[in-house]
Amino acid sequence: MSGVASLGLRSSGSYGSLQQSNGQSPSPSPPLGARKAGKMSLGGAGAGGRGGERLLFARICKLTSRRRRMLLLLLVAAAVVFCFLFSSLVSKDEDAPPGIETMLGFSDQVRSFVNPVWTSSGRPIIQRDSLSGNGLNTASQTEKQSDSSHEKLWGVSWSFPPSVVLEHHPCENFSFSPPPIDRKRTGPRPCPVCYVPVEQALALMPGAPSASPVLRSLNYLSDDNLISKESNSGSLFGGYPSLEERDKSYDIKDSMMVHCGFVRGKIPGVNTGFDIDRADLSEMWQCQGIVVASAIFGNYDIMQQPENISIFSKDTVCFFMFLDEETEAAIKNTTTIDNTKRIGLWRVVVVRNLPYSDARRNGKVPKLLLHRLFPNVRYSIWIDGKLKLVRDPYQLLERFLWRKNVSFAISRHYRRFDVFEEAEANKVGGKYDNASIDYQIEFYKREGLTHYSSAKLPITSDVPEGCVIIREHIPITNLFTCLWFNEVDRFTSRDQLSFSTVRDKIRTRVNWTADMFLDCERRDFVVQAYHRELWEQILRSPPPPLSPSVRQQPRKMLPDNTAKEPGKASASKRLPAKRTRDKKSGSKRAHRTKVTTGGKEFIQL
């Protein structure tokens, strides 16, 4: 009963104002208030400063209404929560090292979302369920893992601090300008390109894969017993597709099965030609998110190390370099490959049992079939072995894919736009035997290939500069590169000649095309080096001797020497270059310097 009485007293004291408003007698309120005040004072005497706080709280409760007290409590609770969150953020920033990772609050957990099996050391985590009886995952298992990682990445990309949220794109006011004038460099050169910082590029990454028009499921043919039924039907590695099968591969449906290399086996790289060690394959299959890939075959190029790569990209992006045994042996003479099979950022993969005798044609396998070698990767950036990457991969993907909402990007040739002109240039340069080039072009002409004209707009070119490919791995882009590879396998290895034919055949059937950006933009994020043979030739050969006229040219730039040596000065005035420059001065000056001597006119130079 005492508990009930005390509850009644608290109720009467707390809601006395409400009782008065209901018409009850106000006389009991003052004694209750006085008794409560005395109780508080006793508590203050026993507890020191706490009594004053309780008295203040009681007076506030007495003077304010119930609604105001509730609002006050909500404000106090909100302030406490805000202070707690703010203190936790400040403590994280104080503990984190400076740099880009401080702004984003990146951690190993965030890195695992972007690439779940890639650690900060750059080594993948070998998971028990990643290996099956044949040594590798099935494609369905890896696709499910990839989809789940993409969903995690979407949640992470929007959980960054508010500073990463962009109301306006930083490059929306950027206007294109041609390459700056350089008298010493008259050939192709880079032009300004607007990139966003890595943290903003990551925040702008799409949360879901791009839509693949019509095609939803793409499968690949495999056959152990292959027989060539036609001449010029490709190679054993490509599966000898017939012309009828070639035509059917352009009949795009919801589900398709096409030739796409590696036909002699079910797992690319395992007894299919272009064979790769199982340990390397396992690491490649565990790469998820983004891969940057390159290749050097026949010791044709010098390995270039990427530059200006952020720490976050080093931890989450896979960098793979494919080599043949000849190139590996040459590299080991000058470079040490550690236990992790790494040279700088590149994870080296040695390929054996190459399908072609031509090193350049072997290079088309990883270039066009990366989706088969890396089935769990969402985006890939291919660069030729002679190129050095000097921009961060996330910046490239944002600039050339995400900003334009496209799934395939390649640069166009800096000079040629027409396939017929490209074919003639290949013949003049000795890139391939003329008969094979002519056969390929005549075949395409019978299929309807025409010269490039403005009627093809918005397509800006039929000839790519194929040393860089930036793409998203979705069924339609995978189909495009498969069919492009089949053309390279059937005809010449000059992929510039077959690009437009495959693109236009797909474009007439579905709403998709390959985006082509300017070559000067490409030259902004890759630096081109000489091929190994040409570079060694330059180093061996001495500089050519200067001609006499070239040796005398610097003297006209030194007026002091010409004044001290009149004889040499007069000789330098007789140089053709000097006369040419004087002729530009105009006819009036020539008339003023005429001198008549003995009835003859002389012009004093």
From TrEMBL:
**Membrane as UniProt keyword:** yes
- Asked whether the keyword Membrane is assigned, the reply is yes
| Residue ranges of the region described as Disordered | 1-48, 129-148, 541-605
Q: Where is the TOD1/MUCI70 glycosyltransferase-like domain?
A: 218-531
Query: Which ranges are annotated Basic residues under compositional bias?
Result: 575-594
Key words, A-Z: Membrane, Transmembrane, Transmembrane helix
Segments spanning the bilayer are 70-90
Q: Where is the sequence biased in composition, kind Low complexity?
A: 1-26
Per UniProt, the ranges with Polar residues bias are 129-143
Q: Name one Pfam family in it.
A: TOD1_MUCI70
Protein name as catalogued: TOD1/MUCI70 glycosyltransferase-like domain-containing protein
**What's the source species for this entry?**
Oryza meyeriana var. granulata
